[in-house]
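Just curious. Invent one:
>
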Amino acid sequence: MTRGISRRWFINTIGVVFVVLLISILTLSLMVQSSTYSGLELALTGRVEELLNWLSGSSGGYETSEFAAITRDYIENYFQDKNRMEIMALSKDGKVFITSTGFEPDQDQAMPDYEMALKSEDSAGKWVGELDTGERVMAITRAVRDSSGSLIGSIRYMVSLERADRQTTLVISALVVGGAFIMLLLTLSGAYFIRSILVPVRQVSQSARQIAQGDFEVRIEKAKDDEIGQLCDAINDMAGELGAAERMKNDFISSVSHELRTPLTAIKGWAETLQGGADPGTEEKGIGVIIRESERLSGLVEELLDFSRLQSGRMRLLVERLDLIAELDEAVYLFTDRARTEHKELHYEETTQLAPVYGDRNRLRQVFVNIIDNALKYTGEGGTVTVSASGGDGYIHVTVADTGCGIPAEHLPNVKKKFYKANQLVRGSGIGLAVADEITTMHGGTLEIESEEGVGTSVAIVLPLCGTLEAEPELIENTPEILKLLERNRE
């Protein structure tokens, strides 16, 4: 309870409720005491008025000669509340000459209410305080005057506040106990609620630290299906995704290492062979291998660099108006000899001239090369790869379809993700398709894949046409600029 959520909850909730309850209890206590004292005051005032009416009715008015006799007669014979309150009769010189208790009155006892009654305009005075004995009392005095306004005496009613204070204390105690009970219930329920939050949060924090340290197998047990439970599910899903990404990264590193090692091994082997001397035929063959493997190694490194640029947002497109079909023709031509060597059929359905597009010539050619290369890699001997292009609705559609092994349905949604390889047995880094998809997106187009396992795969590249206006080459860093350029051209 010294820091964090618990401390804030304790201060903001328990503290506020405690202050509210304390103010409420104090207010109610004062109201109860005030109400009790007001009731006693009304009762005493009523008794005073009763005696004054008795005096007035007995003598036809307030007269000095009758006052002492009438009050004595009333107190001795007609006053019924001797056990609840005390009545005193005072002479005009302020001396008590009779009390309802029957004991000799204490003439030295201070009577502030009597002094107040003599000075007030309504001849009435009230006092709440302690007697010399320490007893708390309430006293009301009424000065009695004759018809000329001269003082003829006073009557004083006094009641002990002990019972009233005891009742008030009981009520206040009940309020305090009730408040304490409320605080206890609030504290217990709040502690249970806070615990239901803090325990999962601590588990989430601990699991997050484990995930940060590389343990992606950690999972949080969900106790309830609420917001905390949803957070646990999100953390578990994140751990699963990070674990999958970590595995793909490791597979990627392994695959790239193998892809780099293969041409390096061939280059090193043939270089050592040629260094030791070789006949002209062997030398020509070795140099040819070194050149091919160097080109392959260079292509792989360039692919990795492109991927790095895409990830960091540093890839730039040199956009110009170009004939996309010409770039597609060149890409197909690059793979003609390879298809023949691997005993595969590369069928190109040539099309009539289509409207040009705005794009980066080298990057779009790279997209076609990556897609056709993938198609040939996953197509067995005797298989067919078909490349076609068509236009319509302001777009060019380039389709590369093969009769290869196809992609399993569970892998199809992930094949465009970085590092992902559906088939670990086929060479490749696993980023070629991700790079192709990113380049297509930067050109304002889409790359869509349809596949059926054991039947084949079809990749559709859709790019927007640009219209008829000429445009100078310009350096573009992101897709929105390309789209603006296209819109200006169409207008």
About this structure: The first helix runs from residue 4 to 59. The domain at 315-490 is CATH 3.30.565.10 (Heat Shock Protein 90).
